[in-house]
Amino acid sequence: MNFGRGPSVVLNVGGTRYSFSREVLKDFPLRRVSRLHGCLSEQDVLEVCDDYDRERNEYFFDRHSEAFGFIMLYVRHGHLRFVPHMCELSFYNEMIYWGLEGSHLDYCCQRRLDDRMSETCTYYAAEEPPGEPARGSEGKGRRPPGAEGRKWLERMRRTFEEPTSSVAAQVLATVSILFVIVSMVVLCASTLPEWRAPENRSVEEQSRYTAESVREPSGIIEAICIGWFTAECIVRFIVSKNKCEFVRRPLNIIDLLAITPYYISVLMTVFTGENSQLQRAGVTLRVLRMMRIFWVIKLARHFIGLQTLGLTLKRCYREMVMLLVFICVAMAIFSALSQLLENGLDLGTKNKDYASIPAACWWVIISMTTVGYGDMCPITVPGRILGGICVVSGIVLLALPITFIYHSFVQCYHELKFRSARYSRSLSAEFLN
């Protein structure tokens, strides 16, 4: 700790005192407590706690003492449960204050929290990042050097990252959505047979980025859309707080995959020539052009539904893996049995559709998912009985992990909805001002 004296510090939470050494605070599991280790002045300390006693080196937190006691049990033993006879949402609010999340709760308590949040449609926002000044301390004292620049960068970042944070952010999001829609319409229309140049060029010729194709309306529209997406991506990279974290985000990777093929195709045309063997084949360029379909995923920045889907898949990857394991195990069993019953027992009534186990796997997949294309079906009585068992087993196996995924989806939706409502309130205040 860079502030205060003495070998130990005292945390006073609602009248209950806890004593710790300075080194323990550095890697303390509670984010708010660990922030005390980096405080340089009394003003920094007061942004973390409610009051401070310099003489006794004691930090005061006006929070629920019994709830903090259960949180300390988690710090010591690794298990976090709700306080008896205390509202789940109130305890969750205490968790958010100290820097914990719902995933730190034991599984039974997570279920209770999900049910309670589903009933009340409530979600508590996490505390502001450590680098942001507290609202109560605004206007007090002199602003540090560079504060105006950081404030401007933060405003720019929210304008590009949070579509509901301001009027400018909403206008920018609307323009970006229009560009995505226009680019998708052009991409879909370019695959129509009627979409031909006056000289009726072939598909391979249409995939080239020549000087003539750029001057066509579709080429001009595509160049404008690519220019907008490129400029947007560059600005968002410049104003981002953590450049490495920005590059690792899935949506930013998708943006890069959608923009890069255009420039690769142009460079290939410049360096290989318009009539090279690679250009005549056209396969590589058509694949690169079709990667523009990833632009549709850019809409996830502006719609809560797509954001909820992505966040749910991220948090439920274990359940998704478990579902895939169920399907793979059942597919191996039923495909082997169906191949044996349809092609391996009776040589006189061989079903050629089940000539091998890999071929039977396709029938198992469409049967377990109750799609049933009808392109292949069993013809023997034992095979049909096995098919019925396969369908019923598929329904049961697919339904088992759905409960876990549903609760996670509800929690993610409430979280994103609350965040959107918070920015909407700031947007309303901006209109009033």
Automatic annotation (TrEMBL):
UniProt record, GO biological process: action potential; protein homooligomerization; regulation of potassium ion transport
The BTB domain, residue ranges: 7-116
UniProt keyword annotation of Transport present: yes
Location of this chain's protein in the cell: Cell membrane; Cytoplasm
Predominant cellular place of this UniProt entry's protein: membrane
Gene3D superfamilies hit by this protein: 1.10.287.70, Potassium Channel Kv1.1, Chain A, Voltage-gated potassium channels. Chain C
Membrane topology category: Multi-pass membrane protein
Residues covered by region (Disordered): 126-148
SUPFAM superfamilies xrefs: POZ domain (SSF54695), Voltage-gated potassium channels (SSF81324)
Keywords: Cell membrane, Cytoplasm, Ion channel, Ion transport, Membrane, Potassium, Potassium channel, Potassium transport, Transmembrane, Transmembrane helix, Transport, Voltage-gated channel
Transmembrane segment boundaries: 167-192, 219-239, 251-273, 293-313, 320-341, 353-373, 385-409
Subunit structure, interactors included: Heterotetramer with KCNB1. Does not form homomultimers.
Protein name: Voltage-gated potassium channel regulatory subunit KCNG3
Organism: Probosciger aterrimus (Palm cockatoo)
Taxonomic lineage: Eukaryota, Metazoa, Chordata, Craniata, Vertebrata
